Amino acid sequence: MVTRTRRRYTGTGTARHAARRAADSAAMRWLARAGFVARGLMYIVIGWIALQIAFGKTRQLADRTGALHELSRTPFGSVALWVLVAGFFGMTVWRLSEAVYGSPGADGCKAKSRLGALARAVIYAFIGYGVLEYAIGAGSPQSSNQQSVDLTATLLRHPGGQAAAAAIGVALIVGGLVLGYQAWRKRFRKTLELGQMRAGARRVVEWLGRFGGIARGIVFITAGIFLVVAAVRAQPHQAKGIDSSLRALTATPLGPWLLVLVSIGLIMFGLFSCCEARWRKV
Prior knowledge:
This protein has 10 helices and no strands.
């Protein structure tokens, strides 16, 4: 009986050790790095579309759907789409491993970090599935604008939905403020292998991460404000996705120039994400 028990525990420990080694393997690191490249490419294209919108050069959507359309029209469009598919599903697997085994750093094994990793895994799986459908010709992902309106309308049809929609909007605003603050304070430095960078490269990466992160936060804040307004007024069409949130920036006193700055910031964040593919601790 004792022998069987010992064998059972030994087998369990061996299985856990093997799974832990798989989570720390070179293959897992490559999946993570491919994910950062995919995310970076997506932000670069969205930022480029938004920049064209600021100068009235395109009617393309400045969101994931528009980015896929834009990439598909390029000579390397098919290859780029499959790079995105591989990258986003790779990021999904990596985030799932973080949710199960924890991430690098002192707080990587805390419940908060694990839940955050799980939430990101779900988001990247959803994005990856949408890109996969587009790549195989099964359909185009719904625009972020329509997704926001549909989600808000669904919530408002249920008791307490107005409060729930407002809460999500507030969460987006708070999340955007946190992203902007963390970027300004260069908190992303904790996740980078700074010792492997030359001084010049470190300055460029910090510059990209700081201003790119602030621009990303502005988009979150703008979308959150519109969602709160839609909830308070019980008008789902007031909710806005990434595209409409970016376009709304042209209605500020700064006119299209605020959109220009944010667009450049999103491109910078995309470049920063590509830098993370090289120097991120994974």
